[in-house]
Amino acid sequence: MTDSTVSAGSDIAQLFDRDGYVVLDGLLSAADVELYRDIYDRFLTGEIAAGDKRSDLGAGARSSGATENITQIMWPSDLYPELTSLPLHDRALAIARELIGADAVLDFDMLIAKAPHTATPTPWHQDAGYWVDLPDERAASIWVSLDDATVDNGCMWYVEGSHRGPVRPHRSAGAGGAIECDCSEDEPGATPVPLPPGSAVAHGGRTLHYSRGNTTGTQRRAYILNFRPAAMIARERELGMDHGRTENVREVRNAQAG
């Protein structure tokens, strides 16, 4: 396996282009992490109301009771605008512009949490499987860990080089709105990417990825910010695609029966 972790002097755009993902060490300080955890937990408890922006991405799996299998909250920065004045949005935007170009802007953000012992995997997929076709496919999703993300609590896995291949046929993974495609941990190039709190990993729209369910007694909280060229976001909005900002609807651009 190749090493896609950023070190001093690394060219993150070169690593991103080579492997389809790149690890970003120390994006947030320990103090930053505590601040984001506090806001995140206020979303999870319902103190910050999310309405129809909150769903169980793993609703098609066996429920663990009252706990959501995979909590997803879309557009947290709309629901709690103070988030945009904190460090992450500006830092992530600067990285996205290094990775995909100076015309990158925020397309959407979301929270995805796996509570202890929920044991529900996020299926293998490519983000582009959710999206409408656009003439410029440049995109970067920056997945920020607010906990120790481990193999057993749901760290990300990527298939190195898969961003250079096609968008595979995707299908619904169940009632929660997740999609899936044919892939496994045995796929050549499949690599787990554990992260400490405050570190992140950026991946492209065609990069195959997944995470195991959380079988541990610890939280796995992630904040994800997605970026693409401003002109393509305008085109998305013209086509009615706003990632649940105005309505909680998912699309599968490459759907197949099953």
Automatic annotation (TrEMBL):
Keywords: Dioxygenase, Oxidoreductase. It holds the Pfam family PhyH. Transmembrane segments: none annotated. One of its GO terms (molecular function) is iron ion binding. SUPFAM superfamilies: Clavaminate synthase-like (SSF51197). PANTHER family: PHYTANOYL-COA DIOXYGENASE DOMAIN CONTAINING 1, PHYTANOYL-COA HYDROXYLASE. This is Phytanoyl-CoA dioxygenase family protein. The lineage of its organism: Bacteria, Bacillati, Actinomycetota, Actinomycetes, Propionibacteriales.
